[in-house]
Design goal:
By secondary structure, this protein is an all-alpha fold. The chain has 3 helices and no strands. Helix 1 crosses helix 2. It is rod-shaped, with a radius of gyration of 34 Å.
């Protein structure tokens, strides 16, 4: 990558790297590019892991909600609540 193709911030990073390591401009650019690629790859993998984690949490919440519903007794099978008239009938009997 020729120096003219670099942005000002990239040029600054390359010049700092050159001063710190004594590397040539070409090797400094190559090193900075490699590091950038590694960082992008790492962030991409991290993003995939985050998506998987989100999905796992969502599935766990759904399963937990399903369990709570399963433990709830079916109200249709239970006797309906007694009305005042029903209570009078049972009391007089």
């Amino acid at each position: 990558m020729p120096p003219a193709a670099l942005t000002s911030s990239q040029r600054l990073l390359v010049s700092r790297f050159m001063r710190a390591t004594g590397a040539s401009e070409r090797s400094a650019i190559k090193t900075r590019t490699r590091r950038g690629k590694r960082k992008r790859k790492r962030n991409e993998e991290k993003g995939e892991v985050m998506e998987e984690e989100k999905q796992r949490r969502k599935d766990a919440k759904t399963a937990e909600g399903q369990k709570e519903e399963d433990h709830e007794p079916d109200r249709r099978l239970a006797d309906p609540p007694l009305t005042a008239a029903d209570r009078d009938k049972t009391a007089s009997a």
